[in-house]
């Protein structure tokens, strides 16, 4: 093995002096074991194509055919739809386009609030638990509980807590804190409050991830930097602003992107919290697509909306990375 | 930069696939493989008090079937939350059971998919002939003029349940008009004891859609025209829906808390626990009521009254139908099973635990020993009911109009007001959504 590998290397310094045929003969011969990386990566590539790429391509194809209930038993019979599914989804003057736009805007607001607040909570938690004190491990574990609980169990518990007459939240607000009148308790899962409810639950589910990532990031900042800045008279907030945040830059970049994608696509939270019928104020886009198309067997239209969502997220991600990379190069 | 962008693009794509794959994913069902002729797979919707209860009820009957025919039936009871998705997955993928029972309101929508075997004349003969079914029951089997793709199995209808003691204490008799029902409800509503006149599942979009239909039918208005196009905004439909919403808004016989009830079991429990004087429910509410300790002599049932001068429609023809998947490998066995399940003997056995009405001609109901109740329900079923619109877009009607009503109830419950024009606007949106996808 070592001998065969050495051969091309030994040959390479000489090509200028030798005949033309010489070096090409050497170059054509591949090193033994060249196939190994390909073999190692092949299963991953095959399954990636099977599990991710193929369904995605099928989804894109579906968006261009009239795949309604009349054809789902025999897809190949579905007539081509051209761009009509996209036209339906993007026509904001039509009922379907208008409701999709409304759902999109609600999801944007939802994502900004959830990602922002989760990041703040995660950062606060990570910084506070950076100093060692008695019971730190307990807090670290406690903060990760929402992330460890099965999604369904966690959200169904919130659903019970948000009930108007029997829920813990109204009981706490009205009967313990007397913040609201006990005779006129608010609804949380219907009407306008539903948005607040779904935001609260999503933050509860998302922030432990921010906490975990930022805590890991903080471990890599050397203690000496803080000590040096303390000698120069920097207070904790200044230290956080000038040392912690910049040094967590790479972590934050990935963290915000991932949280954005997860939150924007969140299906479980509204589905479990609201059941089959989402209130208009909590009409998040993944669930909207599901109920506007899959429930009524109009897969073509649903796929068109999914593809539009895909394009939007690609655009946001691309722009985000482009801007951040340019900034870090300029810095 | 480039590699990172590619990586990011891949990440986004991976995340998005979850959405795109919704259609093609889902749990893969056990297909109808096995020795052809000797086994069948049967998906049964949840009819009893629990899935375990259904299994307990059906298992001895399937054993009986095996004894008669030698065919083993593999039973899977599916909860209502999953049933629609499971059937859709089966239809889409072709990985289907042999026989499935469905809510009969889906019959026409699912017929349109072409996944179910039509009961032509030879198939009908094999299951005992179309003439054995009650005309009302069989009318739900599919679109008019087409060969039915489902046959009735259990019959259900709505009735107005009232608490006998509350009514006699207040010196009231059961209502015969909608106005009387509202007046009685007002008299029986008592904030100090926490009793309400009428409990409704105002957060359930399927229940809401049913009442949209019934109230519109009482106004002699229909939801679809002859061409199958939606007519949700016609005056009769809007007025009918307003009448139902006003139970909470202006009549205040239903409490605002009901806007959160996304399941009829919740309103039924209120009735059974003496927190509501009336409920409008299908006959299978008996199970829940009896389980909560209220016996059948403590409540009475009358047809849901129409407003004075209105058409006497008290219910739609609800119930469960039985369909055979077209690609079954054991058609003969499947038809034999359908024949068995719809035989007079089996109807007599199964109607009892499921509080269902017989779907056969000339068979007396067995679901209750209360003869007055049995007579009322049979009368409603055979004489005072209409089928829900028998058009392929029926499922879209339920989801768009039902959800619009959820939102309107939510507005009322959270202190807003809903005017006739608000209802009309909401229904226009629903109608546009249905029309747009009809193409």
Which labels suit this protein?
heterodimer; A: 331 residues; mainly alpha; MetI-like fold; 15 helices; 0% strand; B: 439 residues; alpha/beta; D-Maltodextrin-Binding Protein, domain 2; 2 domains; 47% helix
Radius of gyration of chain A: 28 Å
Q: How is the biggest beta sheet of chain A arranged?
A: none
CATH topology-level fold name of the largest domain in chain A = MetI-like fold
CATH class of the largest domain in chain B, named Alpha Beta
3D architecture notes:
- The complex is a heterodimer of chains A (331) and B (439).
- By secondary structure, chain A is mainly alpha-helical.
- Chain A is built from 15 helices and no strands.
- With 439 residues, chain B is an alpha/beta fold.
- Chain B folds into two domains: 39-156 and 317-386, Periplasmic binding protein-like II (D-Maltodextrin-Binding Protein, domain 2, 3-Layer(aba) Sandwich); 158-316 and 393-438, Periplasmic binding protein-like II (D-Maltodextrin-Binding Protein, domain 2), CATH 3.40.190.
- Chain B has helices at residues 2-20, 51-69, 80-93, 107-113, 121-126, 135-138, 164-169, 178-188, 205-218, 235-249, 264-272, 285-291, 331-341, 344-354, 371-383, 394-413, 420-438; strands at residues 39-45, 72-78, 99-103, 151-156, 158-163, 196-199, 276-282, 299-302, 315-316, 318-324, 385-386.
- In chain B, the strands form three sheets. Chain B has a five-stranded mixed beta sheet. Chain B has a four-stranded mixed beta sheet with strand order 6-7-5-8.
- In chain B, helix 2 links the parallel strand 1 (39-45) and strand 2.
- In chain B, helix 9 (205-218) crosses helix 10, helix 11 (264-272) packs across helix 12 and helix 16 runs antiparallel to helix 17.
- The chains are: A mainly alpha (331), B alpha/beta (439).
- Chains A and B meet through helix 3, helix 5, helix 12, helix 14 and helix 15 of A and helix 1, helix 3, helix 4, helix 16 and helix 17 of B.
């Amino acid at each position: 093995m070592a001998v065969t590998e050495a051969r091309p290397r030994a040959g390479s310094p000489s090509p200028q002096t030798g005949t033309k045929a010489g070096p090409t003969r050497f170059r054509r011969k591949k090193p033994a074991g060249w196939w190994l990386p390909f073999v190692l990566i092949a299963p991953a590539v095959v399954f990636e194509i099977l599990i991710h790429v193929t369904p995605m391509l099928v989804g894109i194809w579906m968006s261009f055919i009239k795949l309604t209930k009349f054809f789902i038993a025999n897809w190949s019979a579905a007539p081509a739809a051209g761009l009509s599914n996209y036209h339906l989804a993007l026509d904001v003057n039509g009922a379907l386009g208008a409701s999709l736009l409304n759902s999109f805007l609600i999801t944007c607001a939802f994502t900004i609030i959830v990602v922002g607040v989760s990041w703040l909570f995660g950062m606060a938690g990570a910084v506070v638990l950076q100093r060692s004190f008695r019971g730190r491990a307990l807090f670290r574990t406690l903060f990760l509980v929402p992330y460890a609980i099965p999604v369904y169990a966690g959200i169904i518990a919130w659903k019970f807590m948000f009930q108007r007459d029997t829920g813990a939240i109204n009981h706490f607000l009205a009967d313990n804190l007397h913040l609201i009148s006990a005779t006129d308790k608010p609804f949380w899962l219907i009407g306008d409050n539903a948005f607040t409810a779904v935001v609260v639950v999503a933050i509860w589910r998302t922030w432990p991830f921010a906490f975990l990532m930022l805590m890991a990031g903080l471990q890599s900042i050397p203690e000496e930097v803080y000590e040096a800045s303390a000698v120069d008279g920097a207070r904790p907030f200044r230290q956080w602003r000038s040392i912690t945040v910049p040094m967590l830059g790479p972590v934050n970049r990935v963290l915000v992107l991932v949280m954005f994608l997860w939150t924007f696509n969140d299906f479980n939270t509204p589905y479990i919290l609201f059941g089959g019928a989402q209130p208009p104020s909590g009409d998040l886009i993944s669930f909207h697509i599901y109920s506007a198309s899959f429930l009524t067997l109009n897969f073509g239209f649903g796929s068109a909306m999914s593809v539009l969502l895909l394009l939007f997220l690609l655009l946001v991600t691309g722009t985000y990375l482009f801007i951040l990379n340019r900034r870090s190069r300029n810095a | 930069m480039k590699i990172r962008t590619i990586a990011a693009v891949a990440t986004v794509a991976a995340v998005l696939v979850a959405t795109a794959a919704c259609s093609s994913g889902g749990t893969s069902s056990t297909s109808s493989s096995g020795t052809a002729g000797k086994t069948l797979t049967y998906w049964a919707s949840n009819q009893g008090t629990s899935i375990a209860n259904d299994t307990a009820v059906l298992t001895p009957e399937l054993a009986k079937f095996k004894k008669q025919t030698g065919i083993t039936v593999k039973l899977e009871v599916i909860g209502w939350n999953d049933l629609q998705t499971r059937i859709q997955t089966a239809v889409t993928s072709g990985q289907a059971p042999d026989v499935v029972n469905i809510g009969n309101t889906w019959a026409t929508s699912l017929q349109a998919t072409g996944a179910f075997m039509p009961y032509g004349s030879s198939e009908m003969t094999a299951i005992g002939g179309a003439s054995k079914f009650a005309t009302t029951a069989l009318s739900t089997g599919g679109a008019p003029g087409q060969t039915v793709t489902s046959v009735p199995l259990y019959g259900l209808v709505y009735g107005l349940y009232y608490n006998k003691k509350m009514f006699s204490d207040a010196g009231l008799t059961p209502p015969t008009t909608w106005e009387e029902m509202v007046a009685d409800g007002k008299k029986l509503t008592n904030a100090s004891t926490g009793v309400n006149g009428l409990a409704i599942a105002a957060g359930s979009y399927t229940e809401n859609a049913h009442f949209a239909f019934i109230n519109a039918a009482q106004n002699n208005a229909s939801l679809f025209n002859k061409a199958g196009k939606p007519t949700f905004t016609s005056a009769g439909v809007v007025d009918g829906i307003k009448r139902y919403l006003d139970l909470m808004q202006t009549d205040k016989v239903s409490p605002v808390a009901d806007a959160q009830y996304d399941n009829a079991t919740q309103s039924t429990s209120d009735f059974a626990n003496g927190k509501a004087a009336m409920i409008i429910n299908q006959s299978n509410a008996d199970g829940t009521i009896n389980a909560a300790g209220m016996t059948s002599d403590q409540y009475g049932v009358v047809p849901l009254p129409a407003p004075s001068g209105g058409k006497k429609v008290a219910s739609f023809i609800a119930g469960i139908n039985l369909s055979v998947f077209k690609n079954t490998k054991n058609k003969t066995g499947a038809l034999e099973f359908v024949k068995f399940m719809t035989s007079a003997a089996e109807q007599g056995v199964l109607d009892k635990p499921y509080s269902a009405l017989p779907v056969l001609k000339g068979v007396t109901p067995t679901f209750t020993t209360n003869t007055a109740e049995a007579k009322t329900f049979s009368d409603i079923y055979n004489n005072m009911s209409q089928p829900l619109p028998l058009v392929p877009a029926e499922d879209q009607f339920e989801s768009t109009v039902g959800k619009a009503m959820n939102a309107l109830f939510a507005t009322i419950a959270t202190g807003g007001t809903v005017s006739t024009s608000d209802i009309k606007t909401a229904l226009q949106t629903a109608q546009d959504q249905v029309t747009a996808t009809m193409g």
